[in-house]
Structures are given as structure tokens and as C-alpha cells.
Amino acid sequence: MELRQLKYFLHVAETLNFSLAARELFITQSTLSQQILQLECDLDQPLFLRNSHEVTLTEAGQTLVPLARETIQAAENCQLRLDDLKNMMGGELNIGVTFSFASIMAETLTAFLRRYPHVKVNVTQSTMADLMERLSHHEFDFVLAFKPTHANPRIESRVLFHHRLAAIVNKKHALAKRKSITLEELQRYDLALTRKDTQARDAFERNIADTDYHYRVKVEMTTVYLLFRLVRESNYVTVLSESTAVGEPDLRAIPIADTDTPENEMQGAIHLLKSSYVKNSAREFVRMLSESTSILRNQLDV
Asked: How many Å apart are CA 2 and CA 68, to the nearest integer?
């Protein structure tokens, strides 16, 4: 039994399609089939049931899936540890970040690349659900996002700061000098919001669920960059975490007073997969992020 065969097995187990798995692995289907057959021969039992219509896992195959994942992860952790020992800093760092965290991490990313120019940093921006799913598949070294409502037992979340929902406007807006605003008052303004797959939007929807308020939602989008551009150039109001406006000098975040309760508090966190080895480069980035001006400012604002 070889690690390569276990990797091939997991790919087929995830796709349940030999042809698709072979294409994604960049090998021929016959090569893939031969490797799976050899693995089944070594284990002396079938792992898949095949017919002309579908591929399914046998009981032995279902049992092997988590064991194969643990074995492959252990081997990868071994390689990462040795690479770190040799290079003192891993050559590549993969980070997932939600839209709300993009501005907060910008300061640290710039400082990290200046200090460690030999490290290649790959940053992926997406929704929390997508990032957490991909983290569980070892696609990221860590994810920067708000702490989810329901904890994943495989993921460790280290809270960096606590934040509230806020109405975000440009610095010339009539609300810009306000210390706070209420959900009722927000009915008076045209809103531009993120779609309902972001934590800030979901938190906003939870807060208005039991009210009879009616909001003028004129724009919905997934890209915070475009949302901020619209807010800068118009009188639209958006609703996000206060932290989203960090590093945006021409925007103002006004806390929404009636959402400022412990159950509505949004916890910014670093999320790591419990079973994975944490690279030196990841540890260093997390340390720098924790000590960054953006994070310290957010901690003081609570």
C-alpha cells in the first residue's frame, strides 16, 4: 500500500467517478483503475462497487476514507516539519480571508512580505462557508474570518477581537458624525448590502427578523470593494462589521445601537485545522497580525 494509492483512492471516493478523478489527477483512467485494483488486492477486499451507471463505496471503502486522510495528513505534516527545519520558513503560505477581513490583514500582509520576501503568499477571498470547507480539505494554512455560530470540531478558532454591526457611510454623509444609529432609523436610507451568504448580512437579518421594519434595499452584491466604491460615491448606506472599514479613511462606521448585545457580538478569529502542522511562516504571520495596529485598534474600540 502506497501513499499515492491512498491519494488516488480518496479522490475517487470524493468524486465517485473514475473518469473525472483521473482527469483531475492528470493521469489516465486505466492507470487510476490499476492503482485502485492494486490497493484492493493489497487489502484483500473491494473498496468500490462498480456498474455501468454508478460507483459507490463498500463498507471497507467507507472505513478506509478517514484512515486514509489521517495517513496522508501525517505524511504531509512530516514533510512540512522537515522543510521548516531546513528552511526556517516555509516557501509558500496559503491564507483564506472573508470580505470583512481583507482590510484588516492588508497591513500585516505588506509587513510580512517586506520582512520575508522569499515566502510566496497565496490569498483567497471568499465566503466563510466556502473557506471553512476548503480549510477542512487542507487547502489553507489558516483562515481569517468571524467565528461561526456553530463550531466545527475539526477546526480551532482563536479569537482576535470582538466587533459589532455598523452602518457604513462616506465621510460627507449626513450620518458620518453620528455616534450610533438604530435599526428603526435605517429605514429612512437607501441601503446597499452584501448578499445573504456573509456573516454580517446574516447577523443583520437575524436582528430584524422579529420587527415590522421595511428597508429600502436598492443594491445587493458579493464584492465589498465595489460596495465601498458605491458608498464612497453616493448616499447609500451599507451594513457590515465595524472592522470592515478599518484602513478606509474616507468611510465612517456608525455602530447600530440596538444590535450591541453579547449574542450579536461578532468575533474576529484565526481558524486552523486541528490535525494539521502549522508552518513557521503561518505562526509568524499570525503573530504579526495579532500585534498589528489594525487588530490593536479593534481591541481598544470594544
From this structure: 11
- pLDDT grade for 96, boundaries at 50, 70 and 90: very high
Residue predicted with more confidence, 79 or 123: 123
Q: b or e along 109-138 (b: 16 or more beta carbons within 10 Å of the residue's beta carbon)?
A: bebbeeebeebeeeeebbbbeebbebbeee
pLDDT digits (tens, 9 = 90+) for 105-152: 888 999 999 988 888 999 998 888 899 999 998 899 999 988 877 788
Q: Rounded CA gap, 94 and 267, in Å? A: 22
Integer Cα distance of 243 and 264 in angstroms: 15
> Given its phi and psi angles, is residue 8 left (phi above 0), alpha (psi -120 to 50 degrees) or beta?
alpha
Within 8 A by CB and 6+ apart from 261, the residues are none
- Residue 6 above 80 pLDDT? yes
Instruction: Map grid coordinates 476514507 to a residue.
Output: 65
The radius of gyration of the chain's CA atoms, rounded to the nearest angstrom, is: 24
